[in-house]
Amino acid sequence: MSATYLPTLKQLQYLVALRTEGHFGRAADACFVTQSTLSAGIKELETLIGVTLVERTRRVVRFTPLGIRVAEKAQRILRETEDLTDMVRAAGKPLAGELRMGVIPTIAPFLLPTLLPRLREQWPDLRLYLREETSQAACDALHRGKLDCVLLALPYACGDVEVADLFDDALLVAFPPGPAAELPECVPATAIDEDSLLLLEDGHCLKDHALSACNRPELRAEASILGTSLHTLVQMVDNGLGITLIPEMAVEAGILAGTRVVARRLDADHPVRKIALVWRKGSPREKEFRLLADALKAAA
């Protein structure tokens, strides 16, 4: 009976990294190896299974159709391997060891300074690694196994995930000081001028939450989507360039400090976004994530 030679996990990691990055140098950096090591590992894999997975040229990396399918299967195998490790870890002390959590930019700087000290106090053995990314990037990383869970604002289509709701975060209308003096404490959505509305650029779910809260479809086409961050939008409003919608948590964290911007409540059917912790369905660490969600909810 002939011996069967199986691919190593390291070879599969190299292949998945190359498929994700599309560049040998970036893939090598992601795997913390040299480019020659990564290239040799993938070449060994191809020799082992007897097929070409990657077409190499000087300028581009092109996966063969079979190479694409092998990389997708390899990604699932690596995720299952991580789940195996997680299952063993979860059987021991809860919320101990490494946990990789994604956080979107419209939550991270406003909530984490309050939450992290309390989490460290409650779970001293937890090594929490944070990765700030847009909603789409964070959800993609979650399903690729690069993240264990994501602190997200809903509604957002994050795929096949479990959800633990934490709390509601109201959306407020931010005005320059002059116009704000003439407005009521609660501003109706119909009073928002589409020609002066400033929103975050594509990729930030807050843009969709703001438009949904206003329930005015014409704003989607008319709004000037300029800001790369909430801080940038606030500075634009402070300089009289328009109005915007910002989360209440950002206001409570002091984002308006040092500006003349005035925030008013929004009178609308759904003037809130829901802050939630999400993770892959079927994760063996579900009990841990629910413990983490309870801790986040209590701290917030």
TrEMBL record:
<dbReference type="GO" id="GO:0003677">
    <property type="term" value="F:DNA binding"/>
</dbReference>
<dbReference type="InterPro" id="IPR036390">
    <property type="entry name" value="WH_DNA-bd_sf"/>
</dbReference>
<dbReference type="InterPro" id="IPR036388">
    <property type="entry name" value="WH-like_DNA-bd_sf"/>
</dbReference>
<keyword id="KW-0804">Transcription</keyword>
<dbReference type="InterPro" id="IPR005119">
    <property type="entry name" value="LysR_subst-bd"/>
</dbReference>
<keyword id="KW-0238">DNA-binding</keyword>
<dbReference type="GO" id="GO:0003700">
    <property type="term" value="F:DNA-binding transcription factor activity"/>
</dbReference>
<feature type="domain" description="HTH lysR-type">
    <location>
        <begin position="7"/>
        <end position="64"/>
    </location>
</feature>
<dbReference type="GO" id="GO:0032993">
    <property type="term" value="C:protein-DNA complex"/>
</dbReference>
<keyword id="KW-0805">Transcription regulation</keyword>
<dbReference type="InterPro" id="IPR000847">
    <property type="entry name" value="LysR_HTH_N"/>
</dbReference>
<protein>
    <submittedName>
        <fullName>Hydrogen peroxide-inducible genes activator</fullName>
    </submittedName>
</protein>
<dbReference type="Pfam" id="PF03466">
    <property type="entry name" value="LysR_substrate"/>
</dbReference>
<dbReference type="Pfam" id="PF00126">
    <property type="entry name" value="HTH_1"/>
</dbReference>
<comment type="similarity">
    <text>Belongs to the LysR transcriptional regulatory family.</text>
</comment>
